[in-house]
Amino acid sequence: xxxxxxxxxxxxxxxxxxxxxxxxxxxxxxxxxxxxxxxxxxxxxxxxxxxxxxxxxxxxxxxxxxxxxxxxxxxxxxxxxxxxxxxxxxxxxxxxxxxxxxxxxxxxxxxxxxxxxxxxxxxxxxxxxxxxxxxxxxxxxxxxxxxxxxxxxxxxxxxxxxxxxxxxxxxxxxxxxxxxxxxxxxxxxx
Length: 190
Prior knowledge:
This protein folds into 2 domains: 23-91, no CATH class; 101-189, no CATH class. Helices cover 52% and strands 4% of the residues. The chain has helices at residues 4-15, 23-36, 39-42, 52-60, 66-73, 80-91, 96-105, 117-129, 152-168, and strands at 110-111, 114-115, 134-135, 188-189.
């Protein structure tokens, strides 16, 4: 069961070729990234001495899909979930150093994507009491993504924006695969 408005948005996105996303595109994006990275660069994403970077490097050239890549890398020590997480870190260029920096600073903001009239009242109350900023428009905080920023809020928003930019590449309709939509799309008000 879905609220009528949510169903309307799903139908609209389906008709515009935004959903269902084409998951196999993600494999192509990740394989492309892996095949460009030298082995030495892969070490920035893995625990020292694990040897996982060697398996990733080897099987990036011997696999034709994301599923095949993960199956080839997987061992008892390297689980499917761990490999998926690593591949996303590589895709987002989220090195161990960056990850530890973000983890050290903790949550920096709350991102609001949409709300109802009732939710709007609740958000006003949350905004008043929260120590974290409620962000509806990333452009209020930055003009361009900057994952190298020393400001943890800017760094985290930048990864958030990158996730959206990569997600749009999975749309079936190429016309919808534009980036930086978080700067232009308004918050959804139902």
